[in-house]
Amino acid sequence: MKSYIKYLKFSKAFQVTFNLSNMSLEARVGTLKLRNPLLLASGILGTTYSTLQRVYEAGLGAVITKSIGPRSRSGNPNPSVFALKDIKSVINSVGLANPGYSVFREDIGILIENKIPTIVSVFGENQEEYVEVVKGLQDLPILAFEVNLSCPNTEKGGTQIGTDPVAVKEIISALRKETEIPLWAKLTPNVSDILEIADAAIKGGSDAIVAINTLKAMVIDIQTKMPVLGFKRGGLSGAAIKPIGVRYVYDLYEHFGEKIPIIGVGGITRGEDIIEYLLAGATAVEMGTSLGVAYPENMIRFFQMKIKKYMKEHAYTSIQEITGGAHK
Fold this sequence. Notes:
The protein is of the alpha/beta class. The protein is built from 9 helices and 18 strands.
């Protein structure tokens, strides 16, 4: 009897091992192949090569740097980050603080030397600044440029570039002329029609759409009667925005189908959230707030385990079989 039980345990273990070995977490974003669909979102742990390398080695498919501009920028006054623990979210007004592309080239170079798949987030306050950054980095063998379109346009009175379809198309078109490296347009949710903005980005030459960036938000301390952030207003990220992100990814996939890769981002705190984004139509996902913990490596491994468990339960052998499943 004992030997029979031992045999059953061995047989079950072998079956699980066999099933897992036939599963592929490989993700495809246009022409890019990633070892899995899990990406580090821009702005979290993305300021130095050491932190970027650390999370990649923990099991991510690729890393995305903090948004890099044409020159050093100190950002907004502190406090610039405030945790909303009751809703597992964060409001921030960091203000695109960065060392500038000419300085950050060294960190990117180290990542590439260590064979870390790297996507560089870029921003500018006008078309010329976007072009300057891309031209200054395009000689590096990076995977893609993620174009952060949620930036203030000083030429138009401080309105966000990403809310203007004409400006979006012009910027992406200008970048397309400068580089053959894939361009990912990261869209703001603070618009009345995200499909109009997405269409403009694709017509300009974007290779993929990233949805979504943070939502405009504010928190007021009722005792001091003042906003908690030094800049007063900020952007909301974390679990609170996940249903919004899923909705936009769903709408984008319904609009474009499989023609345009969609990268989902916003509020991923569980493995189930990743599956939800994939079913909505994402080919890959970005994680930010949930990795801003003491041991992000553990979170990454846990997310991978949950994806494999789901695939096993539903007899999937590849990520591509999950993508867009909610539309079938």
